[in-house]
Structures are given as structure tokens and as C-alpha cells.
Amino acid sequence: MNTVLKPEDQIFAERYSWIFKINSDYADSDSVLYMTEIATPLGPMLAGATLQGLCLLEFANRIRLEKEIADLRNLLKARIIPGRNQYSEQAETELGEYFQGLRKTFSVSLHTPGNDFAQAVWQSLLQIPYGQTCTYKEQAERMNNPKAIRAIASTNGRNRLAIIIPCHRVIGSNGTMTGYAAGTDKKKWLLMFERSNSISKENLLF
Predict the structure, then answer these.
(1) pLDDT in tens, 7-54
(2) 206 belongs to a structural domain
(3) Per the database record, which ranges form the Methylated-DNA-[protein]-cysteine S-methyltransferase DNA binding domain (predicted)?
(4) Residues 6+ apart with CB under 8 A from 12
């Protein structure tokens, strides 16, 4: 299927050409994953959206990003094309408000393919309030599954929607900045930024 690209989408396709090299298996699929770049104060983020909602938001320096996108494409059985839809546009607007300190929750529709356990873990992340943190142990206890700390931590790491599903708010039991695939420097920045813009100073261990 041939698509006439807007100039900005063509630039994106050339800058991230590696994304489209993993695309051949579903070249004729009716399912589409629209990919674009969103600028942030912490560097560029890649955003992916389907007709159901936003399904990817990751910093461009995230480790194993190519595998994450390939796995998502396989889950969706989708072809990837450069471009935007209403969900990626809304995500960009809401991220801009977030980084201005004006937004503490997100309303963009999300598309998060995964099994029931993964869905439960990601939902538990959404329950951590802006400006607060919890430990992996506390997260497991809140899920009534205290023996599943490692499985929960691993599933946190498979969250594809950075910031919006706030896995950065989960920290080590001693306050360490552990387990953030885009770098602990970004995790610490996000937590400090949220704390500085929050009236709540509870449950911050660093």
C-alpha cells in the first residue's frame, strides 16, 4: 500500500528508518499503527496510536526500543506508517500541559494489548497519584499479590506508555531510582518535577 506522506512525516520516516525496516510482515494489513515524534524537555519521545487509542509513548533513547516496537506490531498485527491521528495529537497536547505543570492526569484513550496480569499491573500504576511514589513491595501489596514482586516489577518494565502510565513513580525500598529503561536521570527528573508541582509531599522516599 502506497501512502503520500506529509513533509513532516517524511522527515520522521527518514530519521527513524529502522522502525520501518521491521514492517514487512504486515505490509498489507488493514490494522495500522501510526508513528510520530513528540518533543519534550527531556528529549524526543516516540508516539504510536491505533484507531483504538494511544499504544506507545517512549523516550527515543529507551533501551531495546526496536524490540518493543516489533513486539507491539506483532501483537497488533499492524503495519507501521509515519503519521498522526486524533490520539497522538491529543497525547502531544496533554504532554505539553504536563510539562508546563498544568496537567496531573491524562484523558487520552489508551490501547494496551496484554494479558490479564499485565492489565492489572498497569492499572495499579495508574492508581499512584501525581507527586507521590510507592515501592515495588507496596505495589505488590496493593494488588493483594505480595509474593509477585519480581513479576510485577518485570511487567512495569513492559509498560509502553511512559509518563501516562506512571511506572516512574515506583522506586526501590531505600528510595533508589531503579528500573527505568530511558535512564534513571529521567526518572529522577520526572519525580522531582512532579513533587515541585504537587501540593502533596507524601510517600516520597528520596
Answers:
(1) 889 999 999 999 987 666 777 788 999 999 999 999 999 999 999 999
(2) no
(3) 116-195
(4) 35, 36, 37, 82
Q: Looking at the structure, do residues 19 and 87 belong to the same domain, yes or no?
A: yes
Work out the widest C-alpha separation in the chain, in whole angstroms: 53
All cell numbers assigned to 169: 513513580
The model's pTM is 0.92
Residues 77 and 125 reside in one and the same domain: no
Query: Is 134 part of the annotated catalytic residue set?
Result: no
Contact 23, 73 (CB under 8 A): yes
Q: Is 39 helix (H, G, I), strand (E, B) or coil?
A: coil
Residue type at 59? Answer: F
Within the chain, which residues score under 70 in pLDDT? Answer: 1-4, 22-24, 200-206
Q: Are residues 155 and 120 in the same domain?
A: yes
Kindly name the residue from 91, 167, 170, 191 that is annotated as catalytic: 167
Instruction: Tell me the residue type at 7.
Output: P
Segments forming the whole domain that contains residue 174: 116-197
